[in-house]
Amino acid sequence: MNQNLTAKFFPQLRGGLIVSCQAPPESPLAEPNIIAAMAIAAIGQGAVGVRINTPAHIQAVRQQRHQSNQTHLPIIGLWKQVLADYPVYITPRFGDAAAVALAGADIIAIDATLRSRPEPLKSLIERIHTELEKPVMADIDTLGAAEEAVAAGADCVGTTLYGYTAETQTYAPPGWELLETLVQTLKVPVLCEGGISSPQMARKALDLGAFAVVVGTDITGIDLKVQAYCRAIAPSSTGDSQ
């Protein structure tokens, strides 16, 4: 972990809630000002930081954060990119990271799984450190991926992609066992992200040693939450015939 890059924001994240403010591209919520409003509302209620996708949304959050005098709270920025030849998609290239940094992200999140990628992980992290002067959050799915990310220079790791890769697709997040193993094995902060669907689960993550907890869908995922409710209350085929 690069102490010079992490000293400003990491202490504020310890033991806190980071809210992932995102929306599906086709959603009416996927407007920069709406995402920014979610972020400022989250911070206003006690979140210690936010996680934001795309340069446009990051820039909007940065502007709103400045106007709300919340500049001391970090934005974890990323840019999801679907590449034809590679399965990694969270800020997969340095150019993506540079755009995220320019938009105003304080920490850059990248896909650090062991899947094939357009640029070597180590050089990507090194360039983010030296050229952008930003710390790196490595989104991983397994212990092996986490260890390689830390060896490559990642400043923290998140369990973000557990359950979302071919190697972990038979498991459902949150990965409590993975979280415990990471906390016991690594010497960098471990963030628990993915599958947290209640305040009690967030508390459990911290009790297991997570440095901070990231919650998205359960707080800001209106589209997915409404779909889930509608599926649950939809009349069954037998009920329709009565």
TrEMBL record:
Domain of life: Bacteria
UniProt cross-references to InterPro entries, sorted A to Z: Aldolase_TIM, NanE, RibuloseP-bd_barrel
Pfam families linked: NanE
Catalytic activity reported: an N-acyl-D-glucosamine 6-phosphate = an N-acyl-D-mannosamine 6-phosphate
The UniProt record lists the keyword Isomerase: yes
Alphabetized UniProt keyword annotations: Carbohydrate metabolism, Isomerase
EC number: 5.1.3.9
Pathways involved: Amino-sugar metabolism; N-acetylneuraminate degradation; D-fructose 6-phosphate from N-acetylneuraminate: step 3/5
Function of the protein: Converts N-acetylmannosamine-6-phosphate (ManNAc-6-P) to N-acetylglucosamine-6-phosphate (GlcNAc-6-P).
Entry similarity comment: Belongs to the NanE family.
Database matches in HAMAP family: ManNAc6P_epimer
Protein name per its UniProtKB record: Putative N-acetylmannosamine-6-phosphate 2-epimerase
Species this protein is from: Candidatus Synechococcus calcipolaris G9
Gene name, Swiss-Prot/TrEMBL: nanE
